[in-house]
Amino acid sequence: MANKLCRLRNLDSVPFSVSISQRIRHLSGIPTPSTPPPEASRSAPSEEKEKVESKQREEPSGDGEGEKGVHVNKLTGEVGGPRGPEPTRYGDWEQKGRCSDF
Amino acid sequence: MASLLNGCANLQSRSFLYLEKGHLQASRVHGISFKKLTEIEISRFSSISRLSCTKNHNFSQSTRIYSTRTATRASLQDKENATKYFDFVVIGSGVAGLRYALEVSKHGSVAIITKAEPYESNTQYAQGGVSAVLCPTDSVESHMQDTIVAGAYLCDEETVRVVCTEGPDRVKELIAMGASFDHGEDGRLHLAREGGHSHNRIVHAADMTGREIERALLHAVDNDPNIFLFGHHFAIDLLTSQDKNGMHCHGVDAFNTETRKVIRFMSKVTLLASGGAGHIYPMTTNPPVATGDGVAMAHRAQAVISNMEFVQFHPTALADEGLPLTPAKRRDNAFLITEAVRGDGGILYNQSKQRFMPLYDERAELAPRDIVARSIDDQLKKRGEKYVLLNISHKPREKILSHFPNIAAECLKFGLDITHEAIPVIPAAHYMCGGVRAGLEGQTNVRGLYVAGEVACTGLHGANRLASNSLLEALVFARRAVQPSINCMEKTSLNPNFLTRWARPVPPLTLKDSTVDKIDKRTREIRLELQSVMWEYVGIVRSTNRLKMAEWKIGDLEREWEEYVFRRGWKPNMVGLEACEMRNLFCCARLVVESALSRHESRGLHFTEDFPYLEESKRKPTIIFPAALPKLTWSSQQLHKQLQC
Fold it and tell me: Which residues belong to any copy of the Fumarate reductase/succinate dehydrogenase flavoprotein-like C-terminal domain (chain B) (predicted)?
């Protein structure tokens, strides 16, 4: 599922509105910069990544493990990092569902 | 009570302007610039003091005497060990305090006082990462832009430039000190990318970055013979004096919560690095130590406070009240449910099972975090409910359990199966963007007092903090405060005759244990009531009416509490952990309310129904000056001055 959290938002183009719900909606938090949102580069292959990662788990322990048995992420090359989906794939920093930074 | 200043204000002028006791905002910043706070030369004292050289390790009660690296001098420590002399005193043992201590210890003796175990700080719980420009394709300008945009354009541009420029070197120094961050197979640091960043720049240690940094720094501190760590020492009030040049800080009184003794720390320079104030709210990610002690002490010491209205909330923390089995013990710090749950299809409902997000934003659950937080807050207040529901149970069970095992396990402990039922959630307070106003070198308007970390308001975060910038700010400012502190220390002498200048706070030895227990119990109840008022009236969606109601209720609650404790024999100069924390919580709560009332626009984290839009003319920091008016409450006056009232 494509994550839309970082879609472009332009504060200046927000029209006036009366109800609180409209006001909350229009006063958005963080306008995105002009570069593409980070999740766009992750969201499409996220399903594929899960397949790849589950494949990794099924592979013999020699693959994906460094010399000292430390986990190596085959996609990113990260050594000693967290296993499973990318912790920042939806913008915050999550560990198995618990958010630790945002 | 504090006054807010309007018009042209000069922090360096001797007389503060007091306009009507309304809620105003500093409207011209050129007279109040972060970078224009300059140190005024400290007048020399007559005699040369001596540094205490007792190492009081918090893990054991035994004491060993070490000689300092400088020349041998006679000890001026008093017989009962109740006064200690140091060149530098650091209040707080998070990343800012420890980093600073490790530098200044090369030039003098350092005491670090911390109210619990040294590792217990917000740093420990910052598990994401540290942001810095470390990739060749990244740029300082990009990091600056992301920071300023996230801060809703309220950031101080020069502060942002300094932090983003110096960040990479601070991270490299951490690595040199032994902090171990994730890297690639090529040996280069692995950089992640959190929301709001337009480039990969988050350095991290698996999922425990803060803990790893804290570990490395504590290890270095332990090996430094010039640093003396005093655990379980609660800072009560700063020791200050005033002369024609303004306020000076000479140290701090602390309460050893294990021995129940008051220790006076005299120092030439004091660094306040005491962290956040999450516990003014009922639901917070902060550990129990975060009770706003630093902001309150600084305010009582006549330091300028800034931007307290910008409190960062996370929209979805696990709400214990909605769990089938109530936890036996109140949770110390909130369990945040990641955005990934909503990203993977989680839906938010109110307790009538209505999906409410589409009413607030066409992106529904995938709207930006602050919109989700405001929407949930609005629903809760309108409906008078304690939590909303986040439902992911319509997704495949295996996917839920493999992606979110932490949530699944935590909820199952209390009888909730997230593959079948919705998760009760409520917003939680996470970070204070405001605090003690600091210049570019961590200096404050009180000479000899520096600040760094979450307790400081440096101008970096503006109206909203960018992810992973808080550890960075702490590292940069702790380092920047070093040379000015050394310069200040070299020009300062400690005068032991000064000791009698401030009355000593005392533990409640004249009261029966049962009386103290009753007072502590009532204080805990009052704390819950204060937190409830803050959540109900000073939450995410604010209004002038509710803020004024909060002001009135907090005032009433504080009077009720003071009457209770004083009626039972508690004296104004008595100290106890519960009572002192309560004083500080009241002080911080009032500062947040006053700041929120003064901002007549909505910007970043501060949203008010009466002024729901951004106003360019109001794009200025909120400043609270100390007041010359008589202090009305116990929490607004330093403890050592209580007997003089």
Answer: 527-613
